[in-house]
């Protein structure tokens, strides 16, 4: 089998309601921008994958063609090595690895997670917020999620003053004593043109101490820079709250360093952003060997979410992050390029069971939106 062509679609989807992401203070998002790639083969099978965020605004079709056309998509490991220069010249290569897995799964007639020895059983999910909101709004949000069967919620705590977010967590704890809470500081990476002062070690420790008092906290996510291995290790030693991170670290070697230096309790590679599916499975094995938790980041578009679902299903992970913050960030807005959004049922999410990634794309909408 040989890759014969690469198609690129630049998609800008108008969301039904605006969204104010915590990691971009003062920014109002009104559209979801995604770069979709389709790898065609001489076997009549195509694989798809997406880049979102800043990579979704870049045009690198010629690079993709240079590295992929003429290659056998089943040679995933060697192709990932060949794609490594993308880490120097342009966007990371991991979404292309996902498209290769999509082809391999379709060729075999099996979902990716099954090829990797996984199970299609529902995965318990935590509802993952994206905005910083006040007590009343968040209590209403949690009430809705609990009624839907979720047993955990992740809140945001991004900014110079975490006190309001910690008060939200306290009030939720009072109302829902058995609900697991996660807290995401989003200090692991920075967004261009957004002026937020990174937390110091003392800032991070102060928040961790507050979360210890709140209790039943699954983890504190990205309280320090993603490359501050020593600082994260010191923080981990001084708090009982598990420390999580790794969504934007690049490659398996970063996670080896996390483990070597004792930096994290919870490893969170994203299949699209950090490791690919194969690398994510290696990180899961490393986590298991060292008694750590494996909980991939999934805040992507619909295809990125599905890619991480296959990784979760192939590794027996305990939690699936389910991005949900209506009215702006809904399954329909997140998964707009899919025929049907991926929905949680009774607080759990099942991986698609069709061949490859197992989802159908809304090609009519894709053609309509394409600005390439």
TrEMBL record:
- The UniProt record lists the Mandelate racemase/muconate lactonizing enzyme C-terminal domain at 136-242
The family database entries (SMART domains) matched by this protein are listed as:
MR_MLE
What SUPFAM superfamilies does the record tag this protein with? Enolase C-terminal domain-like (SSF51604), Enolase N-terminal domain-like (SSF54826)
Q: Which domain of life is it from?
A: Archaea
Q: Which GO terms describe its molecular function?
A: hydro-lyase activity; metal ion binding
Keyword Transport assigned: no
Q: Which UniProt keywords apply?
A: Magnesium, Metal-binding
Pfam families per the UniProt record, alphabetical: MR_MLE_C, MR_MLE_N
Q: Cross-referenced Gene3D superfamilies, in alphabetical order?
A: Enolase-like C-terminal domain (3.20.20.120), Enolase-like, N-terminal domain (3.30.390.10)
What cofactor(s) does the depicted protein rely on?
Mg(2+)
Under InterPro entries, the record lists: Enolase-like_C_sf (IPR036849), Enolase-like_N (IPR029017), Enolase_C-like (IPR029065), Mandelate_racemase_C (IPR013342), Mandelate_racemase_N_dom (IPR013341), RHMD-like (IPR046945)
Query: What protein name is recorded for this chain?
Result: Mandelate racemase/muconate lactonizing enzyme family protein
């Amino acid at each position: 089998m040989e890759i014969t062509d690469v198609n690129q679609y630049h998609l800008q989807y108008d969301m039904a309601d605006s969204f104010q992401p915590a990691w971009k203070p003062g920014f109002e998002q009104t559209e979801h921008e995604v770069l979709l790639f389709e790898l065609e083969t001489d076997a009549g099978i195509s694989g798809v994958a997406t880049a979102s965020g800043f990579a979704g605004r870049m045009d690198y079709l010629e690079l993709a063609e240079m590295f992929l056309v003429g290659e056998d998509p089943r040679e995933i490991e060697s192709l990932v090595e060949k794609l490594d220069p993308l880490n120097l010249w342009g966007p990371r290569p991991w979404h292309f690895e996902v498209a290769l897995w999509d082809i391999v799964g379709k060729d075999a007639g099996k979902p990716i997670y099954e090829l990797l020895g996984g199970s299609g059983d529902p995965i318990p999910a935590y509802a993952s917020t994206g905005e910083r909101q006040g007590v009343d709004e968040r209590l209403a949000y949690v009430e809705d999620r609990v009624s839907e069967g979720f047993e955990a919620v992740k809140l945001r705590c991004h900014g110079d003053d975490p006190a309001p977010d910690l008060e939200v967590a306290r009030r939720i704890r009072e109302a829902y004593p058995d609900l697991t809470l996660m807290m995401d500081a989003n200090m692991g990476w920075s967004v261009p043109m957004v002026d937020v002062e990174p937390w110091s070690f003392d800032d991070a420790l102060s928040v961790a101490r507050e979360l210890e008092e709140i209790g039943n906290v699954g983890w504190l996510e990205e309280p320090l820079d993603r490359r501050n291995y020593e600082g994260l290790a010191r923080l981990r030693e001084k708090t009982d709250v598990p420390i999580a991170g790794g969504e934007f670290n690049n490659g398996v070697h970063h996670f080896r360093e996390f483990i070597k230096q004792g930096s994290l309790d919870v490893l969170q590679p994203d299949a699209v952003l950090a490791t690919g599916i194969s690398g994510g499975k290696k990180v899961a094995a490393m986590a298991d060997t060292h008694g750590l938790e494996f909980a991939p980041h999934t805040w992507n578009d619909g295809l990125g979410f599905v890619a991480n679902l296959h990784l979760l299903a192939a590794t027996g992970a305990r939690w699936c992050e389910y991005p949900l913050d209506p009215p702006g960030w809904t399954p329909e807005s997140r998964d707009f390029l899919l025929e049907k959004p991926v929905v949680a049922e009774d607080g759990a999410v099942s991986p698609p069971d069709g061949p490859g990634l197992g989802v159908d794309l809304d090609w009519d909408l894709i053609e309509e939106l394409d600005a390439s």
